[in-house]
Design a protein that fits this description.
alpha/beta, globular, binds flavin-adenine dinucleotide
Amino acid sequence: MGKETGFLEFERADNCAAAVPDRIRNFDEFRQGLDADARRRQGARCMNCGVPLCQSAMRLSGMVTGCPLHNLIPEWNDEIYRGHEDQALARLLKTSNFPEFTGRVCPALCEKACVCGLHDDPVTVHDNELYIIERAFAEGRMQPRVTKNRSGRKVAVVGSGPSGLAVADQLSHRGHDVTVFERDDRIGGLLMYGIPNMKLDKQVIARRQHLMEAEGVTFCTGVDIGKDISPKELLDQFDAVALCTGAKNPRPLQAEGMEDNLKGVYYAVDFLKMVTKSVIAKKGGRKTAKAQSSADPAALVKGKHVIVLGGGDTGNDCVGSVIRLGCKSVTQLEMMPQPPVGRLESNPWPEWPKVLKTDYGQEEAIAVFGKDPRIYTTTVKALHGKAGKLKSAEIVQVGFDQGKLVQKAGTEQTLPCDLLLIAAGFIGCQPYTAEAFGVPLTGRGTTATPEGSYRTGVEKVFTAGDMHRGQSLVVWAIAEGRGCALEIDRYLMGYTDMDV
Ligand SMILES: Cc1cc2nc3c(=O)[nH]c(=O)nc-3n(C[C@H](O)[C@H](O)[C@H](O)COP(=O)(O)OP(=O)(O)OC[C@H]3O[C@@H](n4cnc5c(N)ncnc54)[C@H](O)[C@@H]3O)c2cc1C
């Protein structure tokens, strides 16, 4: 602990966000980091607790609090305070493969468990992490680390989201030859075609790809395993296969009129992908055939009434995106009741706080339209169209009766709606890849493995990430990828000395 009284002397200072009117003009990242002196003061706020709950990933009341990667947070906070940036980087990279992703998009489970947060604002762990890694890239300290001793073993990774990338990064540093297969035209999974550009600039993914390629990882994009290449071919060519295909199967909307296939109804991730493709194309990115043929999202949104079904993070990303594309109005529907503003007694620190969060998209909607876009305990009951196009949505209040969701008769209301974005969650992986390999799925649509293991019942075949855990977070995908890599290494070598 560099400065014993840091937590008393210095107040928390977050990275600054650009003002709403400025940031909604484009899809650029809008948070600005602090300078080195201000960052050192933030590092000094860390109390170097004897029991650092921030790095614990404890399960309390059914939810995890603290970092799933067990990042050595007090250690690198101390190094930041002392200005030892190389040491801070070394300690960060020991447990985290891609701090440039989590430093941008992680909801910071660590900060919710920070002891400083018991009586005051928690330490800025998330922003400190981003500072360490971005300084290292800017100053040329992130150079390829090529492992000289090669094992001669070959591993195929199917899917290039954060879990697949973590498997590849770990195994490549261990000395195995890794090839990553991705069906999309660019790598990154939901980092690329889910999370919008303003939260994670896509150059950040390209920069990591270049580094991994320089370290020996091979990326094959536009290859759909199970369709373009059969499992047999892959299993014949490689010593192990990691299936990391995500959990992209959307929860369908049960509403009257869905069967009419009206124009203007989209699942959130399909819409967000279309938006990112157009942002990349406008920035002059390499144009692929798929990018050229995709629809123009601005034409769908400009001057239109939009309803986003789903009050979670994906829904918020839709709100932020349609505001940037010039919607006439945006309404976000959430089935659950509005959470309390502060913690309830039944949800004490350091449990994950079940409190109202107003994210960037909702902040922007409040600034632009003068009101919070969210309506709680409400869903869509029916869709109405004209000439095949969506025109309005009938919404209805809902409640729970003996744990079952029920619609409240007499509360129906019709809203104008040209575009409905369904962000109502996910129901597991798209099953075709697992089925092609003969890997069984659980009732939740995830790949089945023994408890705590990443090994499927099929010889040579492992699995990780959302496909295995269910739709989750980037930090969990990386943690899963690291665990899976360790098990593959043990399988290939008969032992392992890798870090989880
Ligand atoms: C809109 C949205 C916003 C989100 N925002 C956040 C956030 O802010 N913070 C956060 O922590 N988490 C966020 N998440 C969750 C996070 O993105 C996921 O938990 C994480 O990306 C899962 O990683 P993954 O590697 O398991 O799968 P994915 O990221 O889904 O990647 C799977 C990859 O596998 C590829 N693939 C599938 N099948 C095949 C095949 N047969 N052959 C070849 N390739 C295949 C897919 O194309 C995809 O690229 C968000 C999710 C969504 C939907």
